[in-house]
Amino acid sequence: MLKEFKEFIARGNVVDLAVGIIIGAAFTAIVNSLVADLINPIIGLLTGGTDFSGHYLVLKGDVPAGASLKAARDAGAAVFAYGSFLSAVINFLIIAWAVFLLVKGVNKLQSAAVRKKEEEAAPAGPTQEELLMQIRDELRANRA
Predict the structure, then answer these.
(1) Which residue in 22, 48, 125, 142 has a CA-CA distance of 20 to 30 Å to 36?
(2) 87 and 124 belong to one structural domain
(3) Are residues 34 and 65 in the same domain?
(4) What is the C-alpha to C-alpha distance for residues 115 and 112, in angstroms, rounded to an integer?
(5) Per-residue pLDDT at 70
(6) Range of the domain at 126
(7) Do 24 and 9 belong together in one domain?
(8) Is the dihedral of CA 35, 23, 13, 106 positive or negative?
(9) CA distance 134 to 138
(10) Which residues pair with 79 in a beta bridge?
């Protein structure tokens, strides 16, 4: 059983998955900071400082006028927190866009590396002048 476990862990897929999870967790912190510290303030400027996350409708219960979403929930009211949902959708779209740009950049770097490797591995063919000389020599040989 221990031998099988060692073989399972030694497989490349498990190690790759573990590395992916660790890098994903680290990348999450970067993306969250990008959204919270850089992009959301710009969106706030464009929307006049509006923070959608506190917008809600009271479906049932008594809530004092102007109460925050947390206060409404703490009061036991049933709330339709459309602002929270809208903020989550906006954050998702921003994160998805950032990940898209990252993947696009990585793919571009990988394809450039593959092209460079193929160019280095490709055998050097004859130059244009060498081909023309071969054609000339073939024509001369056929005339004779």
Answers:
(1) 22
(2) yes
(3) no
(4) 5
(5) 87
(6) 51-144
(7) yes
(8) positive
(9) 6
(10) 58
Integer angstrom CA distances of residue 131 from 124, 126, 139, 144: 13, 6, 12, 20
Do residues 63 and 43 share a domain? no
CA angle 89, 107, 119 (to 5 degrees): 170
Angstrom distance (rounded) from CA 67 to CA 50 = 16
- Whether residues 31 and 9 share a domain: the answer is yes
Stated as kind and residue range, the H or E segment containing 78 is: strand 78-80
Domain count, the chain: 2
pLDDT confidence of residue 50: 67
Low-confidence residues of the chain, pLDDT below 50? none
Q: Specify the amino acid at residue 66.
A: G
Please give the model's pTM, rounded to 2 decimal places.
0.54
Same domain, 101 and 73: yes
What's the pLDDT tens digit per position in 46-55?
877 766 778 8
Residue 133 has a pLDDT of: 92
Q: Give the type of residue at 117.
A: K
